[in-house]
Amino acid sequence: MLAQRLSxxxxxxxxxxPESGTIAxxxxxxxxxxxxLPRERTEVVSRSLRVHQAFRESGFRxxxxxxxxxxxxxxxxxxxxxxxxxxxxxIVPVTCGPTVIDGQKTDGVESLQREIGQRAVLGEVLVxxxxxxxxxxxxxxxxxxxxxxxxxxxxxxxxxxxxxAFSCDGIDPGSRALADALPDGMDGHxxxxxxxxxxxxxxxxxxxxxxxxxxxxxxxxxxxxxxxxLDDARARFHWADALTFRPDxxxxxxxxxxxxxxxxxxxxxxxQGFIRAGARxxxxxxxxxxxxxxxxxxxKTLVExxxxxxxxxxxxxxxxxxxxxxxxxxxx
Length: 332
Known about the structure:
Elements: H1 2-11, E1 23-26, E2 42-45, H2 49-57, E3 61-63, E4 72-76, H3 81-91, E5 99-104, H4 109-117, E6 121-128, E7 131-137, E8 149-152, E9 158-161, H5 173-181, E10 185-193, H6 199-205, E11 208-217, H7 220-229, E12 235-239, E13 251-256, E14 261-262, E15 265-266, H8 268-281, E16 282-293, H9 299-305, E17 306-311, E18 318-326
Parallel strand pairs: 1-2, 1-4, 2-3, 4-5, 10-11, 10-13, 11-12, 13-16
Antiparallel strand pairs: 5-7, 6-7, 8-9, 14-15, 16-18, 17-18
Helix pairs in contact: 5-6
């Protein structure tokens, strides 16, 4: 909804674009329409590779970390309050003008507005489409710098996880269920698609026979966390699109707990794409190990992509599958 509120805010002069200088747009969804902004003066800031690719194709400059200086910054709120505060602490010091905050009620924009109101000078607030947009100047971001969450490792020590990352408050139950279902031995080369901060890859590295693990992740902050969490020479880290990644050599195993949201909208086709991509990455005798929420419709895609599909036990909340003998990719 950022595009809708931004156009209206500009029209009503609630937000005024600077006459010169660069405008940073922080953490937009890949589908966000930024045509209301001058493209030649707009820089998108995101740690998502999918967002990078989408905006580069549209002709925008894109960076993973804000460089500045910026004449204005526009922040599209993430769902996590800690991630929102960390984003503000990162962008405000390199922005000379106002910082515009936009978000849905479900993203906690009202709560953040109240908090920022005690730390900054706020402009008029635009309320539209179940969300809000407002500009803030002189924002005091003291104490908002990103502090990694710490989660206990199953065998001692801790994982360090960036605020706002998937399952930053603990090991995801689905990933844990899949890790528990993996065999004791997994010979050869393994790919972890959508590897996050490294829990599943860590579990894989404990298996007998594993020669190497490719961690493939869209979120650069999560990938860098996994690099810090896994002190193992067999782990290789790829900021890459899971749907197009090509392992070298082909994988003997693919493990995945695929996402099923595009931005803030549920989209089962993402997980279906992970299944098809996993099949393309495997050797003829390779195996895909998958966990999914029970409501997600993945069975048809599994059968279309593999000759043998087997459910792994029963779980109240999740479906677990082992799929083997990938089918040849059909030529179109």
